Amino acid sequence: MAEFRVRVSTGEAFGAGTWDEMSVIIVGTEGETLPLPLDHFGKEFSAGAEEDFEVTCPQDVGRVLLLRLHKTPPALPRPFWPLASDAWFCRWVQLTPPRGAPLRFPCYQWLEDQGSLVLREGTAKISWEDRHPTLQQQRQEELQARREMYSWKTYIPGWPRCLNEETIKNLDLNIKYSLAKNITFYLRGGSMLAHLKLKGLLDRKGLWKSLEEMRSVFSFRKTPAVEYVFEHWQEDAFFAYQFLNGLNPVLIRRCRHLPKNFPVTDAMVALVLGPGTSLQAELEKGSLFLVDHGILSGIRTNVINRRPQFSAAPMTLLYQRPGCGPLLPLAIQLSQTPGPDSPIFLPSDDKWDWLLAKTWVRNAEFSIHEALTHLLQVHLVAEVFTLATLRQLPHCHPLFKSTGIGIEGFSELIQRYMEQLNYSILCLPEDIRARGVEDIPGYYYRDDGMQIWGAVECFVSEMIGIYYLSDESVRDDSELQAWVWEIFSEGFLGRESSGVPSSLGTREALIQYVTMVIFTCSAKHSAVGTGQFDFSAWMPNLPPTMQLPPPTSKGQASLEKFIATLPPVNATCDVIIALWALSKEPGDRRSLGTYPDEHFTEVAPCWSIAAFQSRLAQISRDIQERNQDLELPYTYLDPPIIENSVSI
């Protein structure tokens, strides 16, 4: 007879407790026990509870390998909840054997209805480290069950493949929003919707009466950033600033040679460049930059309120003044085909001509940001990472533990961009070098992003060093290689031209790859998602659609035509409601480096996590100190703002 003490920790979330009955089977090297009830007088497994149970094992099972938790409905109806399944969230189980130290079995999973969970002691193990047949079999069974639960499907041809589910209602609780998060999310969106409905704007299909009307409508959701946009949206310096630190800070690149289809001349830009220089001289100095939205050329557009909408594929040339002067726009062409019907707009043009041209560029920014930078790069790609992790890495694996164009136009745009998306774009240091923007001043996305990348890379390097002692150990990890292959084949559709690895052969390659995954799902998502409402609440700064075609000549614009080109009232409201909800984390925030689920039980990874948190804290202090001197603070990559994962 052997007596064990079993301590069970139940999660604190609403609904985490259960009225169901629990039992445990202890599996060891010499056999396993019968189900041992976890029961004592009174109510067990309440939310937030840690409870001790004494269980007696009639035989010696040897060294403990696994625990099997089993949940069954009580003999009597559940109080107050007779018609619903009684899910339970287990944080961990600790087993203290008759002799020896306590063993911690991390769980952090929901158990629904009548079911079982198999738990392993918390030491992370790579596949080849498991020598015992029982543990090898458990790994295989866990992955097989997850591959059956989470399968791939093609949502739209040419897109990354995704989870094969028709509705979120079918997802199990372990990958759903929490109830509290769901309620907060819908209440936030619902409050904005109700406000606009009561004002009679949500169903109003006509034009805005004036710019003043737009401003008065959305003044009730002011933030300091929204106020700044209100005040500065027409300024050339702020227009250019947004290519560096706005919602889409990933397109701007140094221009060494003007594109042949963008025939800017010295005479056009002399006023901004000033005397004693020329286009060629500035190109050679590296002080000119280009933002090209050519991928939008010929894209299908939407129909709103029975009216066809319009799109442009502009090119924008920008100039960085000597010293620390602001980045400024030099010229804008609204199509990829130069000619009499595609004039090059200049800062010296009529006020409304120039403002309308800049607004067309901002509309292109909206489309590229929402479809490619946001939806594709940090949601669809992140889903690929997540689904491959669920299917190919067991819980005990160390990497698992760390871890206006309309629908048709969006689809076409993503299909086009998938042919261009490559590994370098996803790796921030390589992307910065490839775009030639290492030294452009005031580029806070780059500055803060590189600090975050460095901290993540250092953390990942330490963790990889703990579990992979050589390049050979990386190559020999079959689960790791299956994970990388599945991301390559399902997410990047097996395109070798993407440069995305299909296998990893060295620790260095593994460190870069895991850093890329973590950065994409945390920091990059924060940089391109958190400020959506800030930059879009004042709709003329980032219009989601345009109701009139791009101008084909100068001298035709006016305030009235400008307003007529902007989205109608109801379309503006629809987008603002969505962006208001999507810009704010709906509760249950887990900042980068925060791991309340304690999957690691060894000392070394826990030290690495603490060091990572310390580095992030220092980065945060540096960012906040810098922001004190900025007219518009850049906060989107401040570590406390960054979520650990794509959570909205």
Describe this structure in words.
- The radius of gyration is 28 Å and the shape is elongated.
- The strands form 5 sheets. Strands 2, 3, 4, 6 and 9 form a 5-stranded antiparallel sheet that branches. Strands 12-13-16-17-18 form a 5-stranded antiparallel sheet, with helices on both faces.
- The longest helix has 42 residues, at 351-392.
- A hairpin with a 2-residue loop joins strand 14 (303-304) and strand 15 (307-308).
- It has helices at 133-149, 179-198, 211-217, 224-232, 236-245, 266-273, 279-285, 351-392, 398-401, 406-418, 423-426, 428-435, 444-467, 471-475, 478-491, 507-529, 532-536, 559-565, 569-583, 603-627; strands at residues 2-10, 21-28, 31-32, 36-38, 50-57, 64-72, 88-96, 103-111, 115-120, 152-153, 162-163, 253-254, 288-292, 303-304, 307-308, 315-320, 327-333, 344-345.
- It is of the alpha+beta class.
- It is built from 20 helices and 18 strands.
- Helix 2 runs antiparallel to helix 19 and helix 13 (444-467) packs antiparallel against helix 20 (603-627).
- The record marks 110 as: Essential for stabilizing binding to COTL1.
- Its cofactor is Fe cation.
- One of its GO terms (cellular component) is cytoplasm.
